[in-house]
Amino acid sequence: MAFVNIQNLTYKYPLTKTPSLQNMNLQIEKGEFISVIGANGAGKSTLCYALAGFVPHFFKGEISGEIEVDGVASSKSTLDEWVVNVGLAFQNPFNQISGAKYTVFEEIAFGLENAGVPREQMQSRVEEAMQLTGISNLADRSPYSLSGGQQQRVALTSILVMQPKLLVLDEPTSQMDPIGTREVFSVIHNLTQSGMTVVMVEHKVEWIAHFATRVIALKDGAVLMDGKPSDVLTSDVLIENGFGVSRYTSVAREAKKQGLWKKEKLPVTLFEAAEGFGSNKL
Amino acid sequence: MNINITDLHFTYPTGLEALQGISLTIHSGEQVAIVGQNGAGKTTLVRHFNGLLKATSGSVIIGDWDTTKYSVAKLASRVGYVFQNPDEQLFSRDVLTEVEFGPKNLGYSKEKIDELVKQALVWTELTDKTETNPYDLSPTWRKMVALASIIAMDTPIVIFDEPTTGQDFANVSRIAHVIAELKKQGKTVITITHDIDFCAENFERVIALSNGQVLLDGTARDVLGQEEILAQTYVDPPQLTRLGKLLNFKETVINQEEFLKAIK
Fold first, then answer.
1. Which residues in chain B touch residue A15, judged by CB atoms under 8 angstroms apart?
2. Do B171 and A258 touch (CB under 8 A)?
3. pLDDT of amino acid A180
4. Which domains does chain B have, with CATH numbers?
5. Segment B182-196, tens digit of pLDDT
6. Among the residues of chain A, which ranges form H helices?
7. What number of CA atoms fall less than 13 Å from residue B207's CA on the CB side?
8. In the A/B pair of chains, how many CB contacts fall below 8 A?
9. Residues of chain A contacting B240 with CB distance shorter than 8 Å
């Protein structure tokens, strides 16, 4: 059976009229790096919450269908059992930072403390995680004295340090500078190489195309497309449904109309675009 | 109304020297994007324009007002500032009250308030949500409420702090539209952004900050083509600029129109 198994999942928040997820079916294998795209309101964050157990355990509401991770059903678990396997980095780091800690180092150790990890292990795991995300220099700063992008790195690190089997990230780079964004994608890609499974909501098509193994496009709480990045991200279906595409794809689509793009398939990465337009620098 | 910044230094109480000698003039009606690494001092800089932060040394003059001598409330009539996180800004029970709050406090006439509020709601496509509590809206729409509530103040200078963060394609287009409308009205628009493609497509002038100093300042084309220097502050050139380089274009291209012209 798949590592993550979502079957006929329909979910409605307590105070909304229509369900945010509608009869969703999704299977995810171990080690996949999945990128979830979609318009605002398509159900991306709700899917993250469902994977992380917040839906329904924290938010309540009406749920039908089932979510299983590593053979365990969400409906048969409590939230504190669930978080051992699944980690979620929130869309807004301000909402995630505990407020109970004076330094970044302590903030990142917070989850490990609660899980009862011995002190020596905690120390080295926090240091390793900070090194991985490039924030060792922020260790002694207050989490609230940081810039938006730095806070976002702290929020991400405080989840990575827990070493979850399934890592769920809701727009983890939204406030990061461009090269920082690329670095985070690369770090996460490496984690999937060592067996972690990642589901990441993102708008940054260029880096999704570069690093993700699979793209899931959501619309109105259901799966609109599901496939390889190079297929999904160049599809006309995305354009028709108002999704953003990379500049490489849109410029090649226009060039194709003018006979300046000769290939059948449209590019989605810099490399594919340069190759297709006949670069001699590759 | 020009913004004149002279040798601006700012040190936070923790001892962090966030700005280390910035001198800039931003002219009336310019569309300026500020880019740079996380922690480069972008937000710290713009928070001096409306007096939220006061210079440790040096000066920031808005028109003829020295910002250290005017209150935030007073400066709000000249500089509108849309926060990075709308939740730090919104407090009213419904969207209409929120958007009316600013212009009311600036003492405009009833007719002017109605007109400004209506225009702001139309530009941000919120006309059907005026009775909704902002916190019942999705984060995306809350961002648009934050935008509308500042635009409605009709200040000559408008600052957006990372307006496109976490926004989908449709909303990024909406924000670009708002910026274009403000430009038509002759307003100065200053935007902090990490979205370099958005920056290339919507701004004439780009300032790159690095470690509290100005690294580059010039037209979008001149600044965004300098790959090596931009890398010092963790910024990549726009996608089509990078593609143009790989295709040996003689000139730097920054948008689709220029790219298609160059490839012919």
1. 136
2. no
3. 87
4. 3-78+155-263 (3.40.50.300)
5. 999 999 999 999 999
6. 44-51, 54-57, 79-82, 93-96, 104-114, 119-132, 148-160, 178-193, 205-211, 229-232, 236-240, 247-257, 270-276
7. 23
8. 131
9. 247-248, 251
pLDDT in tens, B25-38: 999 999 999 999 99
Long-range contacts of B10-19 (CB under 8 A, 24+ apart): B10/B41, B10/B44, B10/B48, B10/B53, B10/B55, B10/B56, B10/B212, B11/B56, B12/A145, B14/A141, B14/A142, B14/A145, B16/A145, B17/B212, B18/B44, B18/B212, B19/B44, B19/B45, B19/B48, B19/B212
CB distance B139–A277 less than 8 Å?
no
pLDDT, average across residues B111-127: 97
Of A145, A147, A206, nearest to B38 by CB-CB distance is: A147
| Nearest-angstrom CA–CA distance, A196 and A34 | 11
Cross-chain Cβ contact B242/A270 below 8 Å? yes
ipTM for the assembly: 0.89
By Cβ distance, the residue of B40, B231, B246 closest to A274 is B246
Q: Would you state the pLDDT for residue A216?
A: 98
Question: Which of A92, A175, A260 lies closest to B162 in CB terms?
Answer: A175
Over the stretch B167-226, which tens digit does the pLDDT of each residue have? Answer: 889 999 999 999 999 999 999 999 999 999 999 999 999 999 999 999 999 999 999 999
Ranges of residues in chain A with a pLDDT under 50 are none
* Residue B140 scores a pLDDT above 90: no
Q: Which chain B positions have a beta carbon within 8 Å of A177's beta carbon?
A: 36-38, 40, 194, 233-235
